[in-house]
Specification:
This protein is of the alpha+beta class. It has helices at residues 13-25, 66-77, 105-118, 148-154; strands spanning 4-6, 37-44, 49-53, 83-92, 95-96, 123-128, 131-136.
Length: 156
């Protein structure tokens, strides 16, 4: 995985605002089982920021991660505005996690699909109290992602 480590002060004002929105979104998490509150904020190319938080369920497979809540909301509400960036933050019983939180495999695949739809890489910011990890392009988180074009070719 290729990423840069940086401090909040090293980010653009737009990226700082996006990370703050993700941090704020952790307070809207519904996580009575894991007590692990995750917030995500998606920046669209039109400047809009859409947030989401993890939503747990006692039937664990129907739980949704913050990233997918934010991405699906953004793609639904603003289908004509490509995603430019996404920021993530998480809190546990001790406050914000020391290390940055990273997207799960399902969220990485959704990010890959969103990138494929818009034909542009997404900047991914992952917040931790010890610093921020920043990468551009989901390929840095999910090399060899499932690609709908590749899957169609393999069915021939």
């Amino acid at each position: 995985m290729h990423y840069d480590e940086c401090a909040m002060s090293e980010l653009s004002s737009e990226e700082q605002l996006l990370l703050q929105a993700a941090m704020d979104a952790t307070t809207q998490s519904y996580s009575p089982y894991s007590h692990f509150r995750v917030g995500a904020a998606v920046l669209l190319c039109n400047g809009q920021i859409i947030t989401g938080s993890n939503q747990e369920n006692s039937a664990f497979p129907v739980t949704l991660c913050a990233e997918r809540v934010a991405l699906f909301s953004a793609c639904h509400q603003h289908s004509d505005a490509p995603v430019s960036a996404i920021a993530l933050a998480a809190q546990d019983a001790n406050g914000f996690t020391v290390l940055p939180v990273t997207p799960c495999g399902s969220c990485r695949q959704v990010l890959a699909e969103v990138e494929q739809r818009s034909h542009r890489p997404i900047t991914i910011l992952m917040y931790g109290a010890s610093g921020i990890w920043k990468t551009v392009g989901v390929v840095n988180l999910l090399p060899l992602a499932f690609d709908s074009i590749l899957s169609q070719d393999s069915q021939v």
